[in-house]
From TrEMBL:
Record-linked InterPro entries: Peptidase_aspartic_dom_sf
CDD domains: retropepsin_like (cd00303)
Organism of provenance: Sesamum alatum
Protein name: Uncharacterized protein
Length: 241
């Protein structure tokens, strides 16, 4: 029988606690490594390997991000609730975002039905707080389509499904627009994200005019209009023609 003194016992306990903590972290990292989502789905910023399409679910327009950088299909939790989707609660599990952060999914939707450019679709979804879009179609959905002809320059996607040739056309990235306070409130109510900016307009012409006025005042004698002939010189420089 091995007898340990108090210091050795405390040391063993600290080592065991540290091992348990590391094991827990490793387990969470393993769980997180199975689920990935592109940061653009969270921020709404356009990316070259994604395509945005407007769809329809239960008579409501939804913003769909078709993304090769996300492993699974995701739907925004608040959007799913507003649409009245049947959600099944699950234990929270982490989803790794490509910027290094994590978000957690708490529900699944076994049969999410939507219509996209005249074609009906159904897929299993996991809920996430997206913000940058309403639905993300990841590799989980793309692998079921077989061969895909995808032109990212023209934002055109073609594939064969249910005996039909399907062609989807993506939306071009929208340019920045000015929005009033009412429009801003509507955006924030839809889980949008806001980056405050303060623009200061400088009138370059007015600034240059101010510098010119200072120069004219400082050398006023040089810029006066001549009122007589130039003074005589001690030596005249002749110009021979």
């Amino acid at each position: 029988m091995e007898v340990l003194d108090e210091d050795e016992s405390m040391l063993h306990k600290e080592v065991e606690d540290e091992e348990c903590q590391q094991q827990g972290m490793a387990t969470e990292e393993d769980d997180c490594s199975n689920f990935h989502i592109l940061v653009n789905a969270i921020t709404g910023v356009h990316n070259f390997n994604t395509m945005r399409v407007t769809g329809c679910c239960k008579g409501k327009a939804i913003n769909i991000l078709i993304d090769t950088g996300s492993t699974h299909n995701f739907v925004d939790f608040q959007v799913a609730r507003r649409l009245g989707c049947k959600l099944d609660a699950t234990d929270p599990f982490p989803v790794a975002v490509t910027n290094g952060s994590r978000v957690y999914s708490t529900h699944t939707c076994k049969s999410f039905n939507w219509r996209m450019q005249g074609v009906d679709f159904v897929a299993e979804m996991m809920t996430l707080p997206l913000g940058g879009c309403d639905v993300v179609l990841g590799v989980q959905r793309l692998v079921t389509l077989g061969n895909i002809n995808w032109n990212f320059r023209e934002l055109k996607m073609e594939f064969h499904m249910n005996g039909r040739n399907i062609s989807l056309k993506g939306k071009q990235p929208a340019a920045a627009k000015l929005v009033d306070i009412k429009g801003l409130r509507r955006i924030l109510q839809k889980s949008g994200q806001m980056v405050p900016c303060c623009f200061h307009y400088k009138d370059r012409q007015q600034k240059e005019q101010g510098r010119l006025d200072t120069l004219l005042t400082e050398y006023a004698d040089l810029f006066e209009e001549p009122k007589a002939l130039p003074p005589r010189r001690g030596h005249d420089h002749g110009i021979i023609l």
